[in-house]
């Protein structure tokens, strides 16, 4: 999920003219933070997934990710999941929306779509996707086996100034067969400081 923030910041300001490189300094060493303004009934990522077998190791400007995650969301396999993420920039103490956000009313249909941000940033690294694709995230006990992968914390060739605090807010909501929203939803944030990368002498 961390790559989502990076891909979207890149597409938000990327150009080859007057370009500068930037580094993301994570605010929370655990990467994922609870939402400060989540929808009612929202919980953090640790209450939707068992992440006890996932390891994150930061090495300078790279985060190495490995291990497995198990879904624990207490919803039904027939539920529809709506997903969204949005990037915010902190301006004078207030989180202001940027131009970049994305949502889908059927997350399960895009979870393993090779053209989706979800796939490019996360699910392409799930090794057993052929076995679990039909289970999405609405089947508790589904084991997602990940290949080791790296998350780069540098973006290159950014036009103008992108410095300051940013956050990406990710939300997943489940709806039953009557299209009624389930009481428990997922909402988490990835927050960090974007700083101009110092040129090596």
Automatic annotation (TrEMBL):
Protein name per UniProt: GK21541
Keywords, sorted A to Z: Signal
Signal peptide coordinates: 1-19
Keyword Signal belongs to the record: yes
Family matches, as InterPro entries: Uncharacterised_DM11_DROME (IPR006601)
Source organism of the structure: Drosophila willistoni
Lineage of the species this protein comes from: Eukaryota, Metazoa, Ecdysozoa, Arthropoda, Hexapoda
């Amino acid at each position: 999920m961390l790559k989502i923030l990076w891909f979207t910041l890149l597409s938000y300001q990327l150009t080859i003219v007057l370009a500068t490189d930037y580094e993301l300094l994570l605010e929370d060493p655990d990467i994922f933070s609870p939402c400060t303004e989540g929808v009612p009934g929202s919980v953090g990522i640790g209450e939707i997934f068992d992440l006890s077998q996932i390891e994150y190791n930061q090495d300078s400007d790279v985060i190495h990710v490995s291990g497995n995650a198990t879904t624990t969301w207490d919803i039904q396999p027939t539920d529809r999941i709506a997903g969204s993420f949005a990037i915010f920039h902190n301006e004078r103490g207030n989180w202001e929306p940027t131009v970049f956000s994305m949502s889908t009313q059927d997350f399960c249909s895009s979870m393993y779509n090779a053209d989706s941000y979800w796939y490019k940033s996360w699910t392409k690294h799930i090794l057993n996707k052929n076995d679990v694709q039909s289970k999405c995230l609405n089947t508790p006990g589904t084991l997602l086996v990940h290949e080791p992968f790296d998350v780069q914390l540098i973006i290159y060739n950014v036009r103008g100034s992108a410095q300051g605090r940013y956050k990406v807010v990710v939300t997943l909501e489940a709806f039953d067969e009557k299209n009624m929203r389930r009481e428990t939803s997922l909402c988490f944030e990835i927050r960090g400081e974007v700083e101009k990368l110092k040129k090596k002498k």
